[in-house]
Design a protein that fits this description.
Blueprint lengths: L12 H6 L12 H6 L33 E3 L9 H7 L10 E2 L1 E3 L15 E5 L19 E2 L5 E4 L2 E6 L4 E7 L3 E8 L5 E6 L11 E10 L2 E8 L6 E9 L5 E6 L4 E3 L21 E5 L2 E7 L7 E8 L3 H11 L5 H16 L2 E4 L2 H14 L4 E2 L6 E3 L5 E3 L6 E2 L1 E2 H4 L3 H8 L1 H17 L8 E3 L2 E2 L8 H10 L7 H12 L7 H7 L10 H21 L3 H10 L7 E2 L4 E2 L28 H4 L7 H8 L2 H13 L4 H4 L8 E2 L2 E2 L18 H15 L15 H11 L1 E2 L7 E4 L6 E5 L5 E7 L7 E7 L2 E2 L4 E3 H5 L2 E8 L20
Parallel strand pairs: 34-38
Antiparallel strand pairs: 1-3, 2-5, 4-10, 6-7, 7-8, 8-9, 9-18, 10-17, 11-12, 11-16, 12-13, 13-18, 14-15, 14-17, 19-33, 20-23, 21-22, 24-25, 25-26, 27-28, 29-30, 31-32, 32-37, 33-34, 35-36, 35-38
Length: 798
């Protein structure tokens, strides 16, 4: 694969404005097919996760869509800890809030960090405000009170009544565009505020530069660069109203207010400009607002459509005219729903209303990212800041890999396998364009944030390849893996290679980094071995044993070690400190982070009985808040187990490795019953771009990918009576749980396609070939099933 060439193709804005594109409207399925097709969208509640610390958003989005059009509430008030409020509003919206400041076009789903919120739009009546105001005093700004009683959300659609303005706001999207519908039910005159300063990042203006151009009395082009989590992130907007505005104000609060002075009254020309510099009005600065006025707003609903591009104004307009050629809101909404209907039908499930709501909402959240980051003409902005064109793949962004390598990406290999190769190719062009010769770590919108640890892109690539998803350059992938894993500029890789661990006097979070590098090295070994590169595989299998170098047998825990071999004298297995030896966790949790070699870990801890006792202690020993107060992410606690954060996600399944699967069955039910629900606060912590949701989906089916890349799934216990996974090539893998009930949480016996299954794991081939996995459930544990060493999940050293 060659590095993709940069292109800087100029286009005529006038031509794009003058011609309505007749492509891009998906063909609707015929009526008979619609009748036969199940509609699992009815089980999705986008409000699940918008309360508590779930950090999801309720607005409109299509599967893997570039646009996430959603309300922002941003309720920062006096007497409230600003840092907590910033964390609370990572997705822009929180269910506890009572006012809305507007609707912006980009949002993260379930992250623990804030950014995005591009181009906030807010309709209003009466006095014009250019600031959002406060939750305590909504009348001081353009924000409006609202009630959840007059708010709705479903896949591809959002609606709310803005009480202060008597406006009904409705939202829907295509992949690259957002469509607003505002019905004014109060005063005759109305206006629409467009705020280029609004940002979901510290609730402050983080705009580096912005501009807006009035092209005609229905069309605007805008741009902004923001300096948030991603530095100097660029986005372009094409904005079009369904009818001409009567007046427009371009407000530059860097300097002075600049009004239209009648130049775009209704009787003036609607002739489009042919080039950007011919804009009728233009302003630029760091504090730009636009107000479009409509004198008879009640005459008919006002629609606003917005196209986004990270490349150029021309591309934003081309995206808009291609994907939204008309003003048919109901058609766009129906097509968005149809996309979700198709995607959600990958799973058929039986269960209670609450169980199905949780399952399908989890699938809905899991199918939002990584998201498309490419214009309709194939152009995208690369991590090098240049413009590239993808000719043989779709380019994606938003790789929250420390979270998502664990379960989301393995899930996508089944529920969206057609997307996975493109996602991997997107990682590979990131590597090619990176000045650091690195695969993505935590990247979005053409920026590497260097957030979190490890180099988990290698796990995603290896797992997909070993499952037969191979439509990418394998040799390039191996080179990218090796360059990443040996990169002398990343964290403490030279020290890791030199010592076999990361010394705590060289880098904080040293133990967690060592453990995660070791797992990643295991996946590189697996990939190299599959390519026939045995020498490379042997080297990385050796590196995959590095976890042993931070295990202190004198205390029986993973422990920080300095470059002279001395153990951390201030060791406390319960303590989770910022800049300490562990990442968003403590030694109780991270001692179990050897997912690829559990049998050797069991030996280190002292055998099956000691390992089981350690697991019990993890779940039963109460964790003092004082020990974890520096980390908001450590949430959803059962003892020391923190389901709200990723380092704990595999641990309940490790009873299987000690020959006690019935204990895993107990723990999975305990987690499901106490730490998840179908309410707005139904997530125990950040959904983390779908990882929490993917955990739920796998665990509801009764198995989980403890170590992606080894092609096995550790069996827990199914939580719904029947779930079918509709696979590629018209195959179906069905899990049945006969006799399942609140009391019957234990596995009595298991059959795979009619044959008794004694092992406490299934394989990728078992799933991919299709068939039926049948569980007989009981109120009493079967303490012999899966207990023999040969029936336990695979382990690298066994």
């Amino acid at each position: 694969m060659q590095r993709l060439a940069s292109v800087f193709e100029k286009r005529s804005l006038g031509a794009l404005l003058a011609v309505v594109c007749l492509v891009g409207v998906p063909t609707m399925a015929n009526a008979a097919n619609k009748e036969a097709k199940k509609d699992n969208t009815v089980w999705v509640d986008p409000f699940i996760g918008t309360g508590g610390d779930g950090h999801t958003f309720p607005g409109a989005v299509v599967p893997f869509g570039m646009v996430q059009l959603s309300p922002d509430t941003a309720a920062l008030s006096r007497g409230v800890d600003p840092q907590h409020e910033i964390y609370k509003h990572c997705a822009g919206y929180h269910y506890d809030d009572h006012t809305i400041i507007g609707f912006s076009h980009t949002h993260f789903s379930g992250t623990g960090h804030s950014d995005l919120g591009d181009l906030l739009i807010m309709p209003g009546t009466g006095k014009v405000h250019t600031k959002p105001g406060t939750e305590e005093d909504p009348d001081s700004g353009y924000r409006s009170r609202f009630s959840h009683d007059r708010e709705q959300a479903s896949p591809g659609y959002y609606m709310v009544e803005l009480d202060d303005y008597q406006i009904k706001a409705e939202l829907t999207t295509t992949t690259r565009t957002g469509l607003h519908k505002y019905t004014f039910n109060g005063e005759k005159d109305g206006h629409v505020v467009m705020d280029l300063t609004s940002s979901i990042y510290n609730f402050k203006n983080k705009v580096v530069w912005s501009d807006v151009r009035v092209i005609d009395n229905q069309t605007l082009l805008a741009y902004r660069s923001t300096n948030g989590w991603a530095k100097h992130r660029e986005m372009y907007f094409a904005i079009k109203f369904s009818r001409p505005f009567d007046r427009i104000e371009l407000i530059n609060e860097d300097n002075a207010r600049y009004r239209c002075n009648g130049c775009l009254d209704a009787g003036k020309s609607n002739k489009p400009s042919t080039i950007v510099n011919d804009a009728i009005q233009f302003t630029a600065g760091k504090d730009i607002k636009v107000v479009a006025h409509f004198d008879d707003a009640k005459q008919a609903p006002l629609l606003v459509k917005v196209g986004l591009s990270a490349v150029s104004r021309s591309n934003a307009l081309e995206n808009l005219t291609t994907e939204l050629p008309d003003w048919n809101f109901e058609r766009v909404r129906a097509e968005a729903k149809e996309q979700w209907r198709d995607k959600l039908n990958v799973i058929d499930a039986e269960g209670t209303k609450a169980e199905k709501r949780q399952l399908y909402t989890s699938l809905y959240h899991a199918l939002q990212a990584p998201s498309v980051y490419q214009d309709v003409n194939g152009e995208y902005r690369g991590v090098d800041g240049e413009i590239h064109k993808a000719t043989d793949f779709q380019h994606y962004t938003l790789f929250s890999l420390w979270d998502t390598y664990r379960a989301l990406h393995p899930l996508l290999t089944y529920v969206a396998p057609e997307k996975v190769s493109d996602m991997i190719q997107s990682m590979l062009v990131h590597y090619q364009q990176s000045y650091d010769d690195m695969l993505p770590i935590w990247s979005f919108h053409a920026h590497e944030t260097w957030t979190m640890i490890g180099y988990h892109a290698v796990s995603v690539i290896a797992d997909a390849y070993l499952k037969g998803i191979r439509d990418f350059d394998h040799e390039l992938a191996l080179k990218a893996m090796l360059d990443t894993a040996n990169n002398p500029k990343y964290d403490a890789i030279p020290e890791y290679i030199k010592y076999g661990y990361v010394p705590m006097d060289k880098l904080s979070e040293s133990v967690s980094i060592t453990l995660e590098y070791a797992y990643d090295d295991f996946t590189i070994a697996r990939f190299a071995e599959a390519l026939g590169e045995q020498k490379i595989a042997d080297e990385f299998y050796r590196r995959a044993l590095s976890y042993k170098n931070v295990f202190d047998p004198s205390v029986g825990f993973m422990r920080g070690k300095d470059s002279k071999g001395g153990w951390n004298p201030a060791f406390d297995p319960e303590e989770a400190k910022l800049m300490g030896p562990f990442t968003e966790g403590n030694s109780y949790q991270y001692t179990f982070y050897v997912p690829h070699d559990a049998q050797e870990l069991i030996k280190l801890i002292g055998g099956d009985k000691a390992f089981e006792q350690r697991l019990d202690t993890l779940f039963e020993k109460e964790l003092s808040h004082e020990k974890i107060k520096e980390h908001e992410d450590i949430a959803g606690l059962i003892g020391q187990y923190a389901h709200g954060n990723e380092p704990s996600h595999h641990i309940a399944y490790m009873y299987n490795d000690a020959g006690k699967p019935w204990r895993t069955q107990e723990r999975i039910r305990q987690i499901m019953d106490t730490l998840s629900s179908d309410k707005p606060d139904g997530l125990a912590g950040n959904d983390d771009v779908g990882q929490m949701s993917a955990w739920y989906i796998f665990s509801a089916m009764g198995f989980y990918p403890v170590a992606p890349g080894n092609l096995s799934y550790s069996i827990g216990a199914p939580q719904l009576p029947k779930i079918s996974l509709n696979l590629a090539k018209n195959k179906t893998f069905t899990v049945e749980a006969k006799g399942l009930s609140k009391a019957n949480k234990y596995i009595k016996s298991v059959n795979l396609n009619g044959k008794t299954l004694q092992r406490s794991y299934i394989t990728h081939d078992d799933i991919q070939q299709g068939g039926v996995l049948t569980f007989e459930m009981s109120d009493k544990p079967n303490k012999t099933w899966g207990s023999a060493l040969e029936h336990r999940p695979p382990s690298m050293s066994r």
